[in-house]
Write a structure and sequence with these properties.
Elements: H1 11-21, E1 22-24, E2 36-39, E3 42-45, H2 50-56, H3 60-66, E4 85-86, E5 95-97, H4 101-104, E6 105-113, H5 120-125, E7 129-133, E8 149-158, E9 163-170, H6 176-188, E10 193-198, E11 203-208, H7 224-232, E12 236-237, H8 243-249
Parallel strand pairs: 4-9, 7-12
Antiparallel strand pairs: 1-3, 2-3, 5-8, 6-7, 6-8, 8-9, 10-11
């Protein structure tokens, strides 16, 4: 399991900091002054900064699991890097998804929030911004009403060797776009595919390669969680100092 702390602090530093930010609770205490969230029998204080959030939670996967966020059925397998973008594959790209679901796929809460600025016509075309929420903040009183969506993120690669992180929306209800994309992601764990939008049918179609290309060379010295946090940039919310809080509360 990858640890977010591996690139930011030694294990000794982590343990020292955890002794200050975590305390055992009998389950009856509630977060005070909106500065923490209760997870099971442990109350974890809000990360003081971006780096502190990374050091505080050894693994986003562990924090997500504590919040009851797990892998969905859609992710089950049936039988020297620059900036890594969080995006869907382009229709012309042959891609693969990392076969290791445990260490290279992750489900996190998401908030979509638009901008009221601009003309009415502009707003019709504008898509709301999407913010990915650190699991420790999911139950923060200022976020809990809005953090009601989940996305799953997968490490993927093109035939040219370009890494990217493939986001996939998780829904309980049936949705042809999402259901067909989930099947394509499954297939891409085992063979090269293209994802093509079929707007007439309202679904994605997967095109499998006619010839058997060699498996991609996945990097072995990179943390998926580190790539994800860096790829999300300012759309990753790890502290109440993030501008999203001002937007949600009408302070901006």
């Amino acid at each position: 399991m990858f640890k977010l702390s591996e690139h930011f602090a030694s294990q000794a530093t982590i343990e020292a900091e955890e002794s200050h930010v975590t305390n055992v609770n009998d389950g009856s205490a509630e977060p005070t002054n909106g500065t923490g969230s209760t997870v099971g029998h442990t109350t974890t204080k809000e990360p003081a900064s971006f780096d502190a959030a990374i050091r505080q939670v050894k693994s986003l996967k562990k924090a997500a699991a504590e919040r009851g966020i797990g892998h969905q059925a859609s992710t089950e397998i049936e039988t020297g890097v620059g900036a890594v973008k969080v995006r869907k594959p382009k229709p012309h790209e042959w891609v693969r998804v990392h076969p290791d679901i445990d260490d290279f796929s992750l489900v996190l809460p998401v908030i979509r929030f638009g901008d009221e600025g601009g003309s009415e016509d502009d707003n019709k075309l504008a898509k709301p911004d999407e913010y990915v929420i650190h699991p420790v903040l999911q139950d923060h009183p200022d976020l809990s009403d809005d953090a009601n969506k989940l996305k799953e993120f997968h490490l993927a690669i093109t035939r040219k060797g370009t890494l990217f992180i493939w986001p996939h929306t998780v829904l309980d209800a049936e949705n042809l776009w999402l259901d067909t994309e989930a099947k394509i992601i499954q297939t891409a764990r085992k063979q090269w595919v293209r994802q093509i939008s079929d707007t007439r049918e309202g679904m994605y179609r997967g095109k499998q390669s006619a010839q058997k290309w060699a498996d991609p060379k996945w990097p072995t010295d990179l943390s998926f969680e580190d790539l994800l946090v860096k790829g999300l940039g300012d759309k990753f919310v790890a502290s109440t100092t993030h501008p999203l809080f001002d937007k949600l509360l009408g302070r901006a």
